[in-house]
Design a protein that fits this description.
By secondary structure, this protein is mostly helical. It has one domain: Four Helix Bundle (Hemerythrin (Met), subunit A) (Up-down Bundle). Helix content is 78%, strand content 0%. It contains 5 helices and no strands. The two termini are 25 Å apart.
Length: 165
């Protein structure tokens, strides 16, 4: 393309990172909450008194969507889209994209696996409601990795602003 300057593409890649974090975390959470909702509905059909316990287990895979949204907002704020100057170099835009990828990828994958652990925990609560506390541990272990991805993305995003790129 004549006259096209790739150096002005920085904001595109930075926005792409923000969008991917929110999108992929949201997709993973939607799948996860849907899977666990099916299992929870089956339990509540048999015993409506277990609604509160299975609802908590259903909601656990939804956190990755929240984390992805948070990374999206932090990125939009850092790159100047939500106030400021959104002009940046291609290199800096690619850095923002890379900084968003941990939350995007881990958010989507961990939400699906957390859903599987939550479905198993819902089955446990269906048979042994007194084991609810223990049943929370299994999906919470998967949550650990989503939190780690959230932390690394936040640290990376907030560090890029001070780089002389």
């Amino acid at each position: 393309m004549e006259g096209f300057d790739f150096s002005t593409m920085g904001i595109f890649f930075a926005l792409l990172g923000a969008v991917l974090a929110a999108l992929m975390g949201g997709i993973g959470s939607a799948i996860g909450v849907g899977m666990t909702g099916q299992a929870a509905a089956g339990v509540v059909t048999e015993d409506p008194s277990k609604f509160g316990k299975v609802l908590i287990l259903q909601l656990l895979p939804g956190t990755q969507g929240i984390y992805g949204l948070l990374i999206g907002f932090v990125t939009l704020t850092q790159i100047g889209v939500l106030g400021g100057n959104p002009d940046m170099s291609l290199a800096k835009g690619l850095l923002y994209l890379a900084a968003c990828l941990p939350m995007a990828i881990v958010g989507m994958v961990s939400a699906k696996w957390q859903a599987k652990a939550s479905v198993a925990s819902i089955s446990l609560v269906a048979k042994k409601p007194d084991q609810f506390g223990k049943s929370m541990i299994f999906p919470a272990m998967v949550e650990t990795y989503a939190v780690l991805a959230l932390l690394i993305s936040i640290l990376a995003i907030t560090s890029i602003g001070g780089l002389p790129v």
